[in-house]
Amino acid sequence: MTSTAAHPFRMLVGGELTEASGGAELPAIDPYSGAEIARIPDASARDVSAAVHAARLAFREVWVEVPGVQRARLMHRLAELLDEHADELGLLECRDNGKLLRETTSQVRFAARNYRFFAGYADKLYGRTIPLDSPDMLDYTLAEPLGVAALITAWNSPMQLLANKLAPALAAGNCVVIKPSEHASLTTLRLGELATAAGFPPGVVNVVTGGPATGAALAGHADLDRISFTGSASTGRAIAAAAASTLVPVTLELGGKSPNIVFDDADLDRASVGAIAGIFAAGGQTCIAGSRLLVQQGVYQRMVELVAGRARQIRLGDPRLPATQMGPVANRPQYDRIREMIAGGLDAGARRVAGEGQGGSVPESGLFVPPTVFADVDNGSALAREEIFGPVLSIIPFRDTEHAVRIANDSEYGLASGVWTNDLTRAHTVARKLVAGTVWVNTYRAAAAQAPFGGTRRSGYGRERGEEALREYLRTKNVMIDLSGRTPDPFAIRT
User: Which of 35, 65, 68, 148 could form a disulfide with 123 if both were Cys (CB 3.0 to 4.6 A apart)?
Assistant: First the structure.
């Protein structure tokens, strides 16, 4: 595929590429140029039901009988296809959500790594034998797939977010219905084509696209066995409520207001680069963004100068070009919200030290927000408490370790955090005390297929990546066998 506009983007339902019933469509807009680059199907509730039915049929009649070693071969082939098409998919995602081309291409390759990692588990889903009180009773467990999983992803990193869900779901033996954000659906639709090319049986992988109504129809469908969602806390609550009505278990990977903590013994050059990477990489449009920079008082002014100076030097521009360091915001609603939050901070008296008048040579049609830094922020303010999901950093001073931990944990979120220190004891101590699913020490935004990821509080529950992710898509069946051959007492419990 070379031309985005010339490629027909269609859903995948039961192995067939299809339009939405009635032909409804939505535009895909390039946030850099403002141009429409493609059209995507806007699925109805009927389309969603067809996809769920196809997944159920495939699970019951085909996929449940496919041995793990064969599932692994298919997953490895999908990973090979992702690597072969990494440049194409990276460019497609870059144009669809405005992220840097080098990052989107890298994320495609990281997605391939996830499929390979979980493929290794597909034939190793062991149960265990359990010794009981009676030697005449044999007890063992089986690890079984749930059935049909709905995988709903966000617009900021579609390929990577999907791999976090799809790889363990397939390895565990489930069939899936995937629903990407309407703001960035193109690479997910393309992945549906690649899954078919890899040889997955019809109905194992299904992809539907559309707006909020499509997502609501999927989340509320009665014939699901698991929902995994990545996105905002507000949408996560709505999905959890819909799932509760049908008693479907949910994995939620939601937002964050992550603290990035710099102690006075840290390497300030490294820490300032880490702070920049933590908030301005991906334009701040990442749930793990280190949007609160906590700095110890002894080095506070120096860190403000370093971070503000580096922020002012960030080059905005065409995300496809190697020289560009930050692209546009992914879509108009998010752009408007970020601008509103910045204006609200200024109205409340926050001190902006970077971002004013900074724009660079960018098209007026582009959704650009300059890297913005506020200093002396009160942790009780909206800037410090609400997830902005954009290139906006709040710098907050602290006195000592206890004070830093108290500020860091004073949040409704609990997804990620960073600690910058050369004191090994302090690093371990603070890591234990932080309420967060991930703690990075002297780094930020690092990821690995083997490392579990997820949050606490309003950042959601459940885990993705790592061995823990498999548990989200498996159920345990217990089998108990009486080996004695004796007629039991019908009124006694065997133990």
Answer: 68
